Amino acid sequence: MGLLIELINEKKIDVLGLQEVRDEAIVQRIKEECGFKDYFWKQYFDCQEGLAILSDYPLTNRWTNWDGTGDIHNSTLMCVHFEIRDQTIALMNVHLDDVLSTNREIEIVKAVNYMKHIETHTGFYQQPQMAWQRCLVQTGPV
Predict the structure, then answer these.
(1) What 8-state DSSP symbol labels residue 46?
(2) pLDDT at residue 8 above 80?
(3) For 61-79, what is each residue's pLDDT tens digit?
(4) What share of the chain is helix, strand, coil (3-state, %, to 5)?
(5) Which domains does the chain have, with CATH numbers?
(6) Quick one: angle between helices 2-11 and 24-34, nearest 10?
(7) What is d(CA 52, CA 44) in angstroms, rounded to the nearest whole number?
(8) Angle at 62 between CA 41 and CA 85, to 5 degrees
(9) Is the pLDDT of residue 18 over 90?
């Protein structure tokens, strides 16, 4: 843990996504020792570990795909929004199934659909040069 905290402080990381975090106390320790202003941690639906996002910026619109909204195929998605210089940023921390590629593909499609939902309902992604949009244009529809 000390090496991780040293690296975060050395690199002056603004936003950090972590997976398989043993418990919220670890996230709180990293927040305090690295000076992050906010964090979002949520325990996985099936064990004590969880996903976390730590940030120098206040986090809003906190969402996970394991809020009782359906089958998650052993893959987890966490999304937050934050503001930098009057620009809203959406960040998704994704932990995909390490066993079945089919489950990984299902959850990747869900992540893309969630991004499309944000665009449709909020106008959030109206910039045509967003990286994920360029990828979809180049590879075709999911």
Answers:
(1) S
(2) yes
(3) 898 877 765 566 666 888 8
(4) 35, 30, 35
(5) 2-139 (3.60.10.10)
(6) 40
(7) 10
(8) 110
(9) yes
